[in-house]
Write a structure and sequence with these properties.
With about 280 residues, the protein is α/β, with parallel strands linked by helices. It has 10 helices and 14 strands. This is CBS domain containing membrane protein.
């Protein structure tokens, strides 16, 4: 199993300099989680959904991107690529040829597709479950985004007032509901004199600068208006390849894990499931 057998060959990429707003449009339209950045034909960085949400006021792609990304070649063993992703918590690896030119992209979703074919019957409860928390469905979207940023999670289950899972919100959903907001802010550079505010000294010492701010903004709406409502769940004794196939078919990055009473007990993230490909390696 090699990278070339599972990588995506028709890769969406951008060149430096590029426009942040155009990247946001690409992420919204395609649903992909990240885009390689090239300069003079060479891969110099990757811009992700997380970068746009965490650096909401940054417009320069060179400052938005994660520079010097780890790359692999088409003949890299799939297990080695998976180990790199697990070790560094990457969701994608640019694939380059011997000249350093971009020829593909290997994502966690590609690894999930590989696992789905392997018919691994190991139960997910043995290795791959993650503890989780849930948010109320009336929680405002900006607060949801901030909580996800602090917690460093890509998705959160949403519950109704009965404590039943009613949906799930992911970074993809946040990006889909975001917009660019332009505003003017003012910085006060006055020297803080104690003179009377109407004196000539006070007027002379007042200095303000107005400047435009363009930022990625989430609307002030409840999370229930943006969450995915048709949630696919699995029991904790589900098989590894069975869950990978569900993720692939449903095009999701995570599956809530429930008990016999359909109560949420954990989360299964794709980034944890790909550990099965690293068995026997030092992660």
């Amino acid at each position: 199993m090699f990278v070339q057998d599972y990588m995506t060959k028709d890769v969406v990429s951008v060149e430096i300099p590029s426009n942040r707003d155009d990247i946001l449009k690409i992420l919204k339209r395609t649903g992909i989680s990240g885009i390689p950045v090239r300069e003079r034909g060479k891969v110099v960085g990757v811009v992700t959904r997380k970068d746009l949400l965490r650096k909401s006021e940054e417009t320069q792609v060179a400052l938005l991107m994660s520079p010097k990304p780890v790359v692999v070649t088409p003949d890299t063993p799939l297990s080695d690529a998976a180990a790199v992703m697990v070790r560094h918590n990457y969701r994608r690896l640019p694939v380059v040829d011997d000249n350093g030119s971009l020829v593909g992209l290997l994502s966690v979703a590609d690894l999930i597709a590989a696992i789905a074919q392997l018919r691994i019957k190991d139960e997910i409860r043995d290795y791959y479950l993650s503890s989780t928390f849930a948010l109320w469905e009336e929680t405002p979207l900006p607060l949801v985004g901030r909580i996800m940023e602090i917690s460093d999670v890509e998705a959160v289950p949403i519950m109704d007032e009965r404590g039943v899972v009613s949906g799930i919100i992911s970074e993809r959903d946040l990006i889909r509901n975001s917009h660019i907001e332009d505003s003017v802010e003012v910085s006060d550079f006055s020297n803080g004199t104690d003179d009377d505010e109407w004196s000539w000294e006070s007027i002379r010492d007042m200095h303000t600068v107005s400047y435009g701010v363009s930022k990625v903004q989430l609307p002030e709406r409840p999370v229930r208006t943006a969450m995915v409502k048709n949630v696919v769940t699995v029991p904790k004794n589900a098989g590894v390849s069975e869950c990978a196939l569900l993720m692939k078919r449903s095009r999701v990055d995570q599956l809530p894990v429930v008990n016999g009473d359909k109560r949420l007990i954990a989360m299964l993230f794709d980034r944890e499931l790909i550990r099965v490909l690293c068995k026997g390696q030092d992660q």
